[in-house]
Amino acid sequence: MKLERRGEARRGSQERERKRAAEEEKERGNKAFKEGNMDTALRCYETAIAMNPINPILNLNVAAVHLRCKNYQLCLEECNQCIAKVRLFGAEKKHLAKAFHRKGRALVGLKKNKEALSAFKLAQTICFSDEITQDITELEQQQQQQQQQQQ
């Protein structure tokens, strides 16, 4: 019985250490991102994911790097990973909204405007944001202009 508890305590301690180390990597990634060093940011975020694979925010950060670098398909994949993890493991609503918002921006980059608009609107229903409203408005205006040009 005592050996079992010690093993559980050791595993818990190791888990806390991994999460702490992952958080440190994430912070290094955030610093690199703010400095515009996308390669370093990506490496840090991916290292953090390896240490704490259930944290959806890390995928959201990787998605931000890919979006900034205009790697839209990779951004889309990371957003989908984030969304799946939020649904499995939970997170604040604002993180789910950010994932759908970034997914929408990636879809715009991939010229999939109808899907992008759906992602933006879903993000907006989860957590209202002026930034999302602006993206919705711009995309709807763009679609109206395209329809008028086709007529």
Q: Could you please describe the fold and organization of this structure?
A:
InterPro entries: TPR-like_helical_dom_sf (IPR011990), TPR_rpt (IPR019734). Keywords: Repeat, TPR repeat. One of its GO terms (molecular function) is Hsp90 protein binding. The protein starts with a helix and ends with a helix. It is built from 7 helices and no strands.
**What's the count of strands?**
0
What gyration radius follows from the Cα positions, in whole Å?
Answer: 19 Å
Largest sheet: none
**Global outline:** elongated
How many helices in DSSP terms? 7
Report the mean per-residue pLDDT as an integer: 93
Q: Percent of residues in beta strands?
A: under 5%
Distance, first to last CA: 78 Å
Helix content: over 70%
Helix-strand pattern: HHHHHHH
User: What ranges have pLDDT less than 50 throughout 5 or more consecutive residues?
Assistant: none
What would you call the quaternary organization?
single chain
Kindly name the structural category.
Answer: mainly alpha
Which key terms come to mind for this protein?
single chain, 151 residues, mainly alpha, 7 helices, 86% helix, 0% strand, elongated
